[in-house]
Design a protein that fits this description.
Layout (H helix, E strand, L loop, with lengths): L3 E6 L3 H10 L4 E6 L11 E3 L4 H7 L2 E2 L11 H6 L8 H7 L2 H10 L7 E3 L6 H13 L8 E5 L9 E4 L4 H16 L3 E5 L5 E9 L5 E3 L3 E6 L2 E7 L7 H18 L4 E10 L2 E8 L9 H4 L4 H10 L11 E8 L5 H5 L4 E5 L9 E9 L2 H14 L1
Parallel strand pairs: 1-2, 1-4, 2-3
Antiparallel strand pairs: 5-8, 6-7, 6-8, 9-10, 9-11, 9-13, 11-12, 12-15, 13-14, 15-17, 16-17
Helix pairs in contact: 1-10, 6-7
């Protein structure tokens, strides 16, 4: 067994990349209960029936997803195995109402939001949605209904920018089953120029490390591109400082240990937080080749009690998600400074099955490499 063994529930691409990073620093990653075998190429996998063997094999328990693993927390605690980050914080981050309430209590800007009454009937819900849409203190641009738990890549979300009665009635029919379980909140849509994220890590000693703000571009609510460092905004230094302060406040206030991603909107008044991911994150995949220390290696360092690594940039990076399609891996991999990560998952519509990273010496070089990749895709 390696010097440190890290366990998590699940077996997707995040676990796979954690396992790959662990091999560099003498850390063994282990997954349990995986319905997806992507992580099996780099991690030791246990079936759901092998909990005793799994717990006996790990030194620290962490999370591949905020939606899996919490059910094991009591068993992990009973065996005195550290859980990093804490199960309490992961529960908050996985609940959009608790998450935004927590951010609000820390005076961190978020979109205005309200919790929908789970006891409403269809007509009451339609009326309430119309009322919230017309409440200009909530938003002048429309509203978005989100489930409290679950839902990602656009799932579990309903956007209303059309004020017709038909729209509210139709959305109410779709939303009604979700307002009692898992529950729903309504947010005012934020007027923003770009979406970005700050990734940071905090160690057991309280040491903090940050990566530069990443520019994220979504299509159909699924991340398609990430670019780092950001070059397209004014007053970048102040935005970077605000982002670091936000990440630091969240981590320090919750004794957070590990890598965290904070997704934000860039507005005329600075950053507004959209969501928190208490784990490694899709928008940080570029750090594998683009930085001296990736978000995956840093997460393992942080939760294992090691000193954090150097997050210096190796150039100007871009990450392209591969969603719901096959690609010619050999042809793309042959391009200079271009790196293909294929997750060995079944290709299905809207499913992330891989990503491609390019690293250029400057913005022009990076963008030319992205254009080469897109031409082949």
């Amino acid at each position: 067994m390696s010097e440190v063994s890290i366990g998590f529930m699940g077996g997707g691409q995040l676990g796979r990349m954690l396992g790959e990073a662990g091999k560099k620093i003498d850390v063994q990653c282990m997954g349990i209960g995986a319905s997806d075998s992507s992580a099996s190429s780099s991690c030791k996998m246990f079936s759901s029936d092998d909990t005793d063997a799994f717990f006996d094999s790990i030194d620290v328990f962490t999370f591949e997803s905020e939606h899996e693993g919490l059910e094991l927390a009591s068993q992990v605690n009973a065996r005195s195995i550290p859980i990093r980050p804490s199960a309490e914080f992961v529960k908050i981050a996985g609940d959009r109402f608790l998450e935004k309430s927590s951010l609000q209590s820390l005076s961190i800007p978020t979109a205005p939001f309200v919790l929908l009454d789970p006891a409403m009937n269809e007509q009451d819900l339609s009326t309430k949605l119309k009322e919230l849409f017309e409440n200009k203190s909530l938003s002048k641009h429309g509203i978005v209904i989100k489930t409290r738990h679950g839902g990602y890549d656009g799932k579990g979300q309903w956007v209303i920018t059309d004020s017709s009665t038909k729209s509210f009635d139709q959305v109410a029919v779709e939303v009604l089953p979700a307002i009692a379980n898992p529950g729903c909140i309504v947010e005012g849509l934020v007027d923003f120029s770009i979406e970005c994220s700050i990734l940071a890590s905090r160690s057991t000693s309280g040491e903090m490390a940050y990566w530069p703000l990443t520019h994220n571009i979504h299509e159909d609510s699924i991340l398609q591109f990430s670019f780092a460092p950001i070059t397209e905004v004014d007053d970048l230094d102040n935005l970077e400082n605000q982002a670091k302060q936000i990440a630091n406040t969240i981590c320090e206030s919750n004794d957070y240990i590990g890598t965290i991603a904070v997704e934000c909107f860039v507005t005329e008044n600075g950053l507004v937080v959209n969501e928190i991911a208490p784990r490694v994150h899709n928008s940080g995949h570029w750090t594998i080749e683009g930085c001296e220390t990736s978000q995956f290696e840093q997460h393992l360092r942080a939760i294992s009690g090691m000193k954090l690594g150097d997050t210096s940039l190796r150039g100007f990076s871009a990450m392209i998600n591969i969603v719901g399609r096959d690609i010619n891996i050999e042809t793309i991999s042959a391009l200079e400074d271009t790196y293909v990560h294929w997750y060995d998952k079944e290709v299905r519509p809207k499913r992330k099955v891989g990503h491609i990273t390019v690293v250029g010496k400057d913005v022009k070089d990076r963008d030319e490499r992205v254009a080469q990749v897109l031409a082949l895709l």
